[in-house]
UniProtKB/TrEMBL annotation:
GO terms for cellular component: chloroplast; membrane. This is EARLY LIGHT-INDUCED PROTEIN 1 CHLOROPLASTIC. It comes from the Eukaryota.
Length: 79
């Protein structure tokens, strides 16, 4: 199998620039509706409500932190 470096190793070896670069574009793009005056609440209907999306985002953030923590504790990459 391949010997891949872990998340922390990748970030410390120049990956921080790539991380910021790839995170910046979607972050800025998500602000465009706000600048146009469109709110999440005005577009919420059915199952896809703004509250549901907020919880999805929170669970995703917890998952990413758990993934990084597991890599750190085990000392191995998971992917």
């Amino acid at each position: 199998m391949f010997n891949r470096p872990g998340s922390f190793s990748q970030i410390s070896n120049g990956g921080a620039t790539w991380f910021v670069g790839t995170s910046l574009l979607p972050s800025v793009a998500s602000l465009i509706p706000l600048f146009k005056g469109v709110s999440a609440e005005s577009k919420s209907e059915g199952v896809m409500t703004s509250d549901a999306e907020m919880w999805n985002g929170r669970f995703a953030m917890v998952g990413v932190v758990a993934f990084a923590f597991t890599e750190y504790v085990s000392g191995r990459t998971l992917v």
